[in-house]
Structure formats: structure tokens, C-alpha cells
Amino acid sequence: MTIGYCRTESVYSPASSDCATVRVSVLAPQQVTMGARVSVAGITQNQYQVLNIGSRAATVAKPGDIVGLQVAAASSQIPNEQKAQDVTATVRNVRTFMSVIPIPAGFELIDAKIVGGDERTSTGSVVAVCTQDGPDCTARLTGNWNQTKFPYVQASIGSTVVPGGTTITLPALDLTLRATGAAGTRGTTGLSQFRNVVIVDVPVVGSTTITFDSWPSSGSNTGVTPPVAPMTPLMDTVIN
Questions:
Q1: Of 163, 180, 42, whose CA–CA distance to 103 is shortest?
Q2: Are 180 and 107 in contact (CB under 8 A)?
Q3: pLDDT (tens digit, 9 = 90+) per residue, 23-39?
Q4: For the residues 126-135, what does the mean pLDDT come to?
Q5: Which among 47, 139, 147, 225 is least buried, having the fewest CB atoms inside 10 angstroms?
Q6: How many structural domains are present in the chain?
Q7: Is residue 110 part of a domain?
Q8: How far is CA 230 from CA 124, 137, 182, 192, 217, in A?
């Protein structure tokens, strides 16, 4: 979508030096289901989060081509309460919002940056290119998280704290990659891990930390450990 605007004139004219255009890309979101086992006041339960994430990347590339991948999550509401069986906890704040996207085989990462966000998340957010464990490279690589492999990109809101009941908009992730694989290589990737740290007040117990350290899943059956599912593709590019 292209939008025309003018600094002082009230009517847009493409011939006027006072006017210009800006191109706005709208990413249609798709639902990405993540699952985890969490403990609240000694009670362990199975939880799911359905994230609405939009992405854009070329579907076809030639060897040596530069491929951009843009990933943006829709705004979401932080709940005021967190329930586990008969226990209802008040959400004080949520932290981390850590997302992991592996670099697909056949592609080389050139650049990674975060763009936008809201008044809380637009500053202080962190993006790291991870080839080994480190302070900003904390993804799990085994068990239900084994779709995460080096190298990967990890993004988070750093030390930012988001109060319960607040609407949050996370920064978008903008990756630049180069196609390095042979013809026929298919580069597919998505969200392989998502981690939230939630501080809640539990009756009698007091302040408690809950970590939602999730993997790609499917369904919504809280009676079983969330099944591992393939990553929802946010990029699916064939080198030809």
C-alpha cells in the first residue's frame, strides 16, 4: 500500500515538491501455536499460547540472491490473572518475550535487526545472532526444543517490564539472508522457541515466578504434555 502525504499543502499532488509517498507493507498474520509445561504454586500444568504472527519472504531465489525475511507479531493483551486448577494468581508483570528463529540450511545470515514496537518495547529490545551459547543466546537445543539449531537469531525485550493488563506490541524482526545452497535447496524456518517470564501474586504463597518456555505444538488438550509439531513456516524459499 502506497500513501501520499504533504508537508504543508492540503491536497496531495505527485508533481509537487511539497509532497511525497511512503510504501507501507501489511503482513497478514497466521496463527502459531506454542506449548509448554509450567508450574504455579507447586501445581504443574500444560499450557498453550496461540500467537498471531505475520511474515514475508521471497518464495523463490537464485544462488547468491539476497532474501529478506520480515516477522511481526500482532499486538496482544497481557492478562490480569493466571489460573492453575483452583488457584488464581494476579499477574504483576511479564518479562523477556524471547523468540528464536533458526537460520535455514542453504542460507547465510547477513544482518538482523529489530524495528518498531511500542512505547515500552521500542527501546531496550535485544537481537543476537547466535552460533554458541552466550548472555543473549539462551535457547534450549534438546528435547522438545530440538528444532532450534545453531546458527539462530534470538530476540527479546531485554530488561523491559510489562504490567499485567497492558496491551503490548513487540518490535518486528528484519533479517537479511543470502542464498548459498545449490539449486533445489528449500529454506524453511519459523518460530522454534518462545519464552515468557511472568511474575504473579499467589494467595497465601505471595510473589512467584512462572516461566513459559515453549516449543512448536498443535491442538489445545491440556490433559497431555503439548505435542511437538513442526515449526509453522514463516519463511519457505526454494533456490532454483
A1: 180
A2: yes
A3: 655 577 899 999 999 98
A4: 97
A5: 225
A6: 1
A7: yes
A8: 31, 22, 24, 9, 7
